[in-house]
Amino acid sequence: xxxxxxxxxxxARFWRDNLSVGIAESIFRLRRGYEGWxxxxxxxxxxxTEFLKQGxxxxxxxxxxxxxxxxxxxxxxxxxxx
Length: 82
Fold this sequence. Notes:
Layout: H1 7-30, H2 35-46, H3 49-52, H4 64-74
């Protein structure tokens, strides 16, 4: 199915999703070990499932434990092939 969004909307959505994942990682890193905060990071990721399941992330730029969390939450590898 073709995406009905305009090219500008597609680009804006990509950057919104990318920024949200970056913020979720920041929360995860700053509050690592605090279950409530880690659950917030999980919830944030759950709002970007479509984006994460595309497998377009350069995971080398993310905290390794956060990558494990993303993969576990999405039940697949979210990283772009190297």
